Structures are given as C-alpha cells and as structure tokens.
Fold:
Amino acid sequence: MKKFYARCFLISLSDGYMLFDSGYPADFNAVMSGWPHALYKYLLPVNIKPQDTCLSQLEKENIKAEEIKYIFISHFHADHIGALRDFPNAKFIYSKREYTRLKKLSVFKQVSKGFVSKFLPDDFESRAIYIEDLQVVHNEIFPVCCVLPFAKDIFVVSLPGHTTGQFGLWLPHENTLFAADSAWTKENFTEDALPHWIGLHFCDDVKAFRKTLELLKSLKNTRIILTHGDE
Structure:
C-alpha cells in the first residue's frame, strides 16, 4: 500500500493569511464512523494525529486560527475540506456550481464522490466568495483564469478532471501553481503514469483529467505543488 500526504498550504497576504484547502481534522475518523461514511475510510484509510493537523502546525508558527482570513477550496473531497470548522473567521472561496451539484446528491452518493457535508461549518454558505463571481482575465495557458479581488497577483485557474469543478491557484510572479489533485504524483504527468485505480475512481472525467495532465506537463518552468505529492 502506497502512502500519500494530504496537505494544505499557507499563503501570506499583505494583510493576513490564506489557506489553500484545509486538510484533515483531528476528529476525522470519529466523524467518519457509521454507514455510509465508513466506506471512505475503507477505501482510503486515514492516519491523522492531532499534531499533524493544519491547526496544530499553524500554532507552532504562532499563527492563530483567527488570523486565517480566507480558505481557497480547490474541490470538495474530504481531505480538502475536513478542517474548515477549525477556522471561524475565514471566508471560503469555492465553485458555487460544484458545491450546488454535490449538495443535491443523496448522502451515499455524496460520500461516493468523496464529499462529506458534516465537515462544513453551519454558516458555510454565508461566508462564501464564489469563483463564478470573480473577474475573468484573458490567459493563453489555462481554460479559465480569474483574479482574486484581495490579491491581484494570485489567479484562480480551472484544472478539471479530478472533479469537474476543481480549481488551483497560480502565482506567476513566483512561477508556482498550487495544482491540488490535478495529479497525485509528479510522475503522473512527467512520466505519463496514471494514478492507482482508486484515484481514477474518484475522478469525475478521465478525459479531462488526462488533458489537465498534458497542461501540467507543458509548464516547463513552473513549480507545480500537488496536495498528495511527496516532495
């Protein structure tokens, strides 16, 4: 069995901090007990210690949860939204279209899609900044590119396939792309090695996934940061 990291990332802004996803919470396995949520644990066993959570790691850096102003949600799989409840002051940036599609599903179908609504704060929707409402800018690399209103040098870019509404963050001034689950490892696009079948099972559109891998492969001078990469 191959081990994968489930990471989130801290981005420093001029007036605070933003997280790229939130990772798993300390109580993940307790929340996921019972049917049908235990199905997720069976397919993707999770080992999370309290000191490994995003919240604990931020505290070690003397950053309080209240200082996180924004959390960018690349997509709604549990390993990306699990710890949202730990950040009471954050605004959530995400695709309204993707969220609305998932919210309409039965609980079983939600879990089969990797979405666990129990991880969302009660006031989740009232703290939303929808990607669909952001200003679209012309870009020759990404099929969709929007600018964040509070950080004009950070762009929201579409990376479909793993989910239809997956987005990443592109920081061209740092030659960096936070690519979420566009690939599980860099070998997926550098060596044309597709992920394990479980990874493809949670893929909404394999054709779009392959196309996004080709896009990543074309970014020769860009640092590509993956959620599950082992670098």
Remarks:
- The chain is about 25% helix and 20% strand.
- The radius of gyration is 17 Å.
